[in-house]
Amino acid sequence: MPGARDGYLTSRLCYSAAMRQVSIRELHIHTSELVRATAAGEIIVIERRGQPVAELRPLSAVPRLSARKKALLFEAMQEMWNRMPPAGDSTKIIEEDRDR
Fold first, then answer.
1. What is the structure's pLDDT at 28?
2. pLDDT digits (tens, 9 = 90+) for 30-41
3. Between 99 and 1, whose confidence is greater?
4. In sequence order, which residues have a C-beta less than 8 Å from that of residue 44 and are 6 or more positions away?
5. Got the DSSP string for the chain?
6. In this predicted structure, which of 7-21, 29-43, 80-94 has the lowest mean pLDDT?
7. What is the extent of the structural domain holding 75?
């Protein structure tokens, strides 16, 4: 009999083929192991009473700046530092302030 249950079975078959499935109880008991597996790239489907309710998946890699963008950023910082007035000897200023 076609219906909502068929969609569930189809999605369940897709999950079965590509992802590990665990119950909420297993998640509670084996959290560290499951997080390690996820960090290694595995996707884990969490089920409640046999129905998928959530996925535990690795985070995307943090985008890194290219060497060119790093160089441009460094040049901009150098220009900013070059525009700043030169630092003097603060010892004299502090001594003058103490004498007040």
1. 95
2. 999 999 999 888
3. 99
4. 19, 20, 21, 22, 34, 37, 38, 55, 56, 57
5. --SHHHHHHHHHHHHHHHSEEEEHHHHHHTHHHHHHHHHTT--EEEEETTEEEEEE-PPPPPPPPPHHHHHHHHHHHHHHHHHSPPP--HHHHHHHHHT-
6. 7-21
7. 67-98
* Pair type for strands 51-56 and 44-48: antiparallel
Say how many domains are in the chain.
2
- Provide the pLDDT confidence category of residue 1 given band limits of 50, 70 and 90: very low
Q: Give domain status of residue 80, yes or no.
A: yes
Distance of alpha carbon 25 from alpha carbon 52, whole angstroms: 13
Instruction: Extract the tokens encoding 28.
Output: 């509670």
